[in-house]
Input
Amino acid sequence: MADQGPPSGTEPPTKEMAEVRLDADGKPLSKNALKKLLKAEKAAAAKAEKAKKKAAEAAANPKKKKVVEEEILDPTAYKANREATVVALQKEGVNPYPHKFHVDYRLPDYNAEYDPKTTDGETLDGEQVS
Output
């Protein structure tokens, strides 16, 4: 009766359960607390491995830097950017807010001329109509 092993109905200790970890007070952790701790450690290790893999992949394939316009860089300064654009257009001699637009065709004439030449969604290269 001295060396019969664990009583029936109990599980043999596993590797995780064989570890004795102590809490902040120096007492051994309960089974549930130990499971929670091991699960957290496993998740942290997986997260670290994923970050390491992502960093290695990023180092292997560097991203190309995109040219970003000023308006996209600072959306809070939209009004100032728009005013600067208007001033730049005026310096070039272009009126950013024209009073009239020059028109060559009336809509029925435009449809009569270009409807037979094109299909829906098609454009004619080399022709400019204002």
In short: Residues 20 and 28 are 6 Å apart (CA to CA).
